[in-house]
Amino acid sequence: MKMTLSAANMLTITTRKRRCSAVRTRFRTHRSKTRVRCTVELHSKGVLVLRSTQPFLHDVGADQAYEAHVKIPANLLADTGYTVNVGVTLVRGEGEEHALMKDKALSFMVYGDAEVNALGSSLQRKGVIDPQLDWTIDVEPNVLRA
């Protein structure tokens, strides 16, 4: 993984398609009796590709620093650029809720090992995701012809 800082002071990361990636979100709490839930959104070419939110709230202590981690599986993303929005929702007391969102917290580029034709372009269409799915082909001997 390679990291650089762009002209807009946005962290830019490059990664390989066949490798797992992770997004870390650091935050600090100031009050006790707080619960937290983190969210990550991936965007590509102006399209929301995926959004993942922690399934339940976590109890956190006062005056503590925390780091939330989310893994993006290998072979899910296409070889294109992405931007990441991260969010932290703090729930205090009896439902006092504060949502903190950082749009375009970082950007990254995924590079695949796609086959290239004689003209130098990829042999497959570009989507915003490109998962590696399990495929099988089976012989079906008892199929009638129409």
Q: Outline of this structure?
A:
With 146 residues, this protein is mainly β.
How would you describe this structure to a colleague?
This protein is mainly β and 146 residues long. It has a single domain (2-111), classed as Coagulation Factor XIII, Chain A, domain 1, CATH 2.70.50.60. Helix content is 0%, strand content 53%. It has no helices and nine strands. The chain has strands at residues 2-5, 11-16, 21-29, 34-44, 47-53, 58-60, 64-72, 81-92, 96-111. Strands 1, 2, 4, 5, 6, 8 and 9 form a seven-stranded mixed β-sheet that branches. It is elongated, with a radius of gyration of 21 Å. Mean pLDDT is 80; it is low at 1-12 and 116-121.
Low-confidence segments, given as residue ranges, are 1-12, 116-121
Largest β-sheet summary: 7 strands, mixed
Count of the separate structural domains? 1
Total count of strands: 9
| Total DSSP helices | 0
Q: In CATH terms, what is the fold-level topology?
A: Coagulation Factor XIII, Chain A, domain 1
Principal-axis shape equals elongated
Distance between the termini: 53 Å
Quickly give the structural class. mainly beta
Q: Going by CATH, what is the homologous superfamily?
A: abc- transporter (atp binding component) like domain
User: Briefly, what CATH class?
Assistant: Mainly Beta
List the helices and strands and how they pair.
Elements: E1 2-5, E2 11-16, E3 21-29, E4 34-44, E5 47-53, E6 58-60, E7 64-72, E8 81-92, E9 96-111
Parallel strand pairs: 2-9
Antiparallel strand pairs: 1-2, 3-7, 4-5, 4-6, 4-8, 8-9
